[in-house]
Amino acid sequence: MKFFYISSKANDDNQFLLHNRDCPDLPSKYERDYVGPFNSASEALRLVLTKKENIKICPMCDCNREVYIISQKHEL
Ligand SMILES: [Zn+2]
User: How far is the CA of 48 from the centre of ligand 1 (A)?
Assistant: First the structure.
């Protein structure tokens, strides 16, 4: 499980980025909304898309995702 946040301010492309808590680009606590715990960013994205539009998974988080899946396998 990872904890996900959505930026409350749109970026230059008018998109809101979905981040996990470990993202190096995570907005400050005043500029993000808590989404909840999910197994993957795509699961979190599915939920936030029911509430908001123009959401994109943060590219920095995408890079982390693969590392996360690998580390999860080690735990099993
Ligand atoms: Zn991010």
Answer: 15
Percent of the chain residues topping a pLDDT of 70: 80
C-alpha distances (whole Å) from 17 to each of 28, 41, 58, 66, 72 are 13, 11, 5, 18, 24
The structural domains of the chain, with segments of one domain joined by +, span 2-75
User: Cα of 17 to ligand 1 centre, how many Å?
Assistant: 7
Confidence of residue 73 (pLDDT cuts 50, 70, 90): low
**Distance between CA 55 and CA 36 in Å, rounded?**
16
Q: Which amino acid is at 5?
A: Y
pTM (2 decimals)?
0.79
